[in-house]
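Example record used in the benchmark description.
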Amino acid sequence: MVGLQELKASDDKFPHEALSEVGYHAAVHGQKAWNGVAVLSREPGETLERGLSGQEDLGARLITTRVGGICFTTVYCPNGKTLEHEDFGRKLAWFEALSDHLAVRGDPGAGEILCGDFNVCPAALDSWHGEAGEGAIFHTVEERSRLQALFDRGFEDLFRVLHPEARDYSWWDYRHGAFHKGQGLRIDFLLGSRPIVDRLRSVEIDRDYRKKRDDLTPSDHAPVVADLD
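Model output (structure tokens):
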């Protein structure tokens, strides 16, 4: 299964046919020009949720499907912009709504995956700024406490399960040569419930996908990939 974020396309513009030709089914919650999330799978899935209740004003940012016994949710969490911007408070409220939603719908004893762009660095280890970044956007106590609430619901950070001390990143600014200087953040996660952790064989951040190829502009994010038994 594959979780996609920031589609920037409405449902009718999503390339279902092209993906079908290479063997993927797609569940999509799109949005014109902004946001949008999707789940790709090799077998048909059942769409359980499209959007986060009460947070519709922030756009298409969540979709949940059930495929092969796994409940798979992908999210595109709000950025927050700056600590002074009104969107920062809306970001925190969105995370709280996500946690409340999982408390009602989630089942930590089942096979659940929650993945996506969370726009939070869980610890100094996850930021090229290190301790110097503490208190800045993505690095605040307020954001981290909302992320911690998801861990308290029974989810674990799959990357940290196997790489507890690695300083690897999943996002680099396009500007100032940040990618080549190693100035990144780890803000994209695969979170899993205990049954998923028990099946975990490997998990990596595929940094090569952030490299420029020919005339194509790469995403500023790198994919996080896990292999399960």
